[in-house]
Amino acid sequence: MSHLAGFNQSNSHYSKDDSAGTILGDKASQSHLMASSNGVEGLHVWSSPEGGCKIDIGKQIFCNRSLNMKNILAVGFDMDYTLAQYKPETFESLAYEGTIRKLVYDLGYPQELLEWTFDPKYMVRGLVLDKKRGNILKMDRHKYVKVAYHGFRELSKEDKVGTYGNTLIRDSFDEPDYALIDTLFSLAEAYLFAQLVDYKDNNPGKVPEGADYSHMYKDVRAAVDLCHRDGTLKQMVAKDPKRYINEDTSIVPMFKMLRDSGRSTFLVTNSLWDYTNIVMNFLCASRTLDGSLSCNFDWLQYFDVVITGSAKPGFFQEENRANIFEVEPESGMLLNTDNGTPMPQVGSTSPEVLFKALNKSCRVFQGGNVAHLHKLLSIESSSQVLYVGDHIYGDILRSKKVLGWRTMLVVPELEREVKLLWELRDMRKQLRLLRNERDLVEDQIHHLKWSLKFESFRDDEKQKMTSALGELESQRDQARLAHQQAQRECHQKFHKIWGQLMKTGYQNSRFAHQVERFACLYTSQVSNLSLYSPDKYYRPSEDFMPHEFHILPL
């Protein structure tokens, strides 16, 4: 797995620019490294952008599996949290407040919940909620729990090991007993769940009767679903998109670049047409002199096919028998189709509707499945499609595992994380040295104990060795304490509670493991595609055996 750790100072492939926070590869390569105990766990290399231009370290595209864009005939996008990046301080707060109201007014929770507030920076993606115990967990790629909280109270090492480390069979940490927090939209409900756990512990008589931790999580999910069903969230966003969605002026140039290169482009979103049109207008429309936004359909020029109401991940199953309807953009009317082919409407003898549908540069649909999409785009092989999304399970896993599409995952948190990794490279080097020092002392202690136990020495020699052993054990305790303090300090630079997104201790986090398994490419925002050639060949490094990382040149 590639993830930025630092840069090999002696390797001629790299030069650095500290002030700009960029990396410039010579014509050999650019690189992306993942932090590890030796600082060189993963190394992914690709040719530098055309013209040798510098790309900000937080905007690079990182490669897990080789991908030659010349073989890609169609590039597709999710909308929510991919093209449209929502602002956590406004949008997630809106979702949180809406969920609270549903809990109180629809599900019988106490009125005092309405006074609660939301901290959009507390939770991170990649966490796992233990519904039965009311715990929030962060684990590594091997599913070992490294950080655990009960509500907002940190579990002791003994409690953590006693609960999750003493079983004969490894827990899968999957549904139905656990919930995975793998989307940015899930952060608000995770925070609310932690608040409810603390509230129940401190006020056992105030929660609805029979509501254990698992039941409370179920109620939170039901409240979130109610917010979606009554359209509360989307109505608020539609009134003032700028308040809830980040503007990205690079999105339109990216679409133009892809279309000028001869590729088809498509949009597949679970949102329905009315909301999709508002959001895409905001992202793509040019502003008037006073900055106001007029709602039109100009953004459709950047796509060949738009599919709304797709019901992903079910959309990716070809056996899914969902009907596909054509959407008439002006009225929002749904028109029957024959698997995407326009049909004359019953009772109409005019060929006008059929003629208009066949001559549109972009056609808009609702529903259907991936087979309809392949037919509409004349895709012969699934490997000719690159799909860009934000949700590992809803977008990336199914499209990659079931279809064989090439995939790019959007991880907005990555921009800050890679910049921090670069800024903290000296601290992380010191951490590595402290760990090596601790390991060296522990090895010496082990050998000394072995000698004392199994070899014969004179009394004076044994006394000296015993004295030396005591000194070494004192050094080990000091080295261990210094290492633990430095590790905690580094951990908290990324996040005061959960640390690095892509790491758990010295191991890749569970989230990073999923990124590695299912995303061919990953990057901080979708418009980073515009910084690279549309015909770029993305290449990972050679595959190294684990032992080889320890002998890479420093």
TrEMBL record:
<dbReference type="GO" id="GO:0046872">
    <property type="term" value="F:metal ion binding"/>
</dbReference>
<dbReference type="GO" id="GO:0008253">
    <property type="term" value="F:5'-nucleotidase activity"/>
</dbReference>
<dbReference type="Pfam" id="PF05761">
    <property type="entry name" value="5_nucleotid"/>
</dbReference>
<comment type="similarity">
    <text>Belongs to the 5'(3')-deoxyribonucleotidase family.</text>
</comment>
<feature type="active site" description="Proton donor">
    <location>
        <position position="80"/>
    </location>
</feature>
<dbReference type="InterPro" id="IPR016695">
    <property type="entry name" value="Pur_nucleotidase"/>
</dbReference>
<protein>
    <submittedName>
        <fullName>5'-nucleotidase domain-containing protein 4 isoform X2</fullName>
    </submittedName>
</protein>
<keyword id="KW-0175">Coiled coil</keyword>
<feature type="coiled-coil region">
    <location>
        <begin position="424"/>
        <end position="489"/>
    </location>
</feature>
<dbReference type="InterPro" id="IPR008380">
    <property type="entry name" value="HAD-SF_hydro_IG_5-nucl"/>
</dbReference>
<feature type="active site" description="Nucleophile">
    <location>
        <position position="78"/>
    </location>
</feature>
<dbReference type="InterPro" id="IPR023214">
    <property type="entry name" value="HAD_sf"/>
</dbReference>
<keyword id="KW-0479">Metal-binding</keyword>
<feature type="binding site">
    <location>
        <position position="78"/>
    </location>
    <ligand>
        <name>Mg(2+)</name>
    </ligand>
</feature>
<feature type="binding site">
    <location>
        <position position="390"/>
    </location>
    <ligand>
        <name>Mg(2+)</name>
    </ligand>
</feature>
<feature type="binding site">
    <location>
        <position position="80"/>
    </location>
    <ligand>
        <name>GMP</name>
    </ligand>
</feature>
<keyword id="KW-0378">Hydrolase</keyword>
<keyword id="KW-0460">Magnesium</keyword>
<dbReference type="InterPro" id="IPR036412">
    <property type="entry name" value="HAD-like_sf"/>
</dbReference>
